[in-house]
Amino acid sequence: MHSDNNLQPIGIIESPYAQKFAVPRQPGLVPAARAQIILQHAFADADCVRGLEEFSHIWVLFLFHETQAQGWKPLVRPPRLGGNEKRGVFATRSTFRPNAIGMSVVELVSIQHQPGKTIIEVNGGDWVNQTPVIDPMWMQFPQRAEALHQLRRKRNCVRFSRPQPNNN
Length: 168
Fold this sequence. Notes:
Elements lengths: L10 E4 L19 E7 L16 E7 L11 E2 L10 E2 L12 E14 L2 E7 L7 E8 L5 H12 L13
Antiparallel strand pairs: 1-2, 1-8, 2-7, 3-6, 3-8, 4-5, 6-7
């Protein structure tokens, strides 16, 4: 199966992380990390983001541009497992993916329009500075206050497992 689809970046991310080793391993781990998604060219049109401000969080599709040229592998060693255990690439957040596409959910802070660009400010990103953006998409949380309440309630939820019988 082969396709000649070419993805066109619609902008870049200005992030506080200059190197990949400083980037949190997943979005939301550093909620105060402010980043800007800069939409450029035809994608900077205010109509492109009309209605997006109604949502509390957005999905951001992006390219793993720093590792793309190195290709991908079916098995990787995730750092969170100490690098000692191999996992299938699709069971990880590895940057070495067949299509080099990443996806992160972040909190939408604001949208600003300036001449020639639209700036989407977000919190909690996990990107290297200058990461190419493919698409920012809304999440299914249309009321900002209610969505934040639901997320906080889920974060504070504690689940206990049943004790296992002792067969000694």
